[in-house]
Amino acid sequence: MSSNSEKKVSLPDKQDLKTMSVFRYELRKFLRVSEEISNAAGITTLQYQLLLHVRGFPGREWATVGELAERLQAAPNGTAALVSRCEASGLVRRKTDKTDRRQVQVHLTAKGERCLLKLAAEHKAHYGSFGWVFGAKED
């Protein structure tokens, strides 16, 4: 069965390409700075992102390995290995879910919380070029 509902893709014009180029450039600059901030603290950017996603998960202070895999856009087994590395560094701890023993919750330790807040403050200072992140503020 063929689908007539497929979207037709229009070719980008010069303004579209310029906008995409600026976005990718700003994104790459931010990612480079993020790497520098994380590495200076002795962790990888993926470890920082994991801490951020654990603490920033909507509605609670923890996340499951599956939820973290989705947030990181990574395979669950790779995410589990990342959690293990963070756990070995004392940044997170695993807890078995009391209602569903198949689920494993990932929680920040006090050390992980301190590390996250320090790095998040440094990252937040660099979000300025992305006014949409925290909402553009009028002077």
TrEMBL record:
Q: Could you tell me one molecular function GO term of this UniProt entry?
A: DNA-binding transcription factor activity
Q: Which SMART domains match?
A: HTH_MARR
Residues in a coiled coil are none
Per the record, the GO terms for biological process are: response to stress
Domain HTH marR-type: residue ranges: 13-139
* Xref: PANTHER family: HTH-TYPE TRANSCRIPTIONAL REPRESSOR YETL (PTHR33164:SF43), TRANSCRIPTIONAL REGULATOR, MARR FAMILY (PTHR33164)
Designated name of the protein: MarR family transcriptional regulator
* Species the sequence originates in: Caballeronia calidae
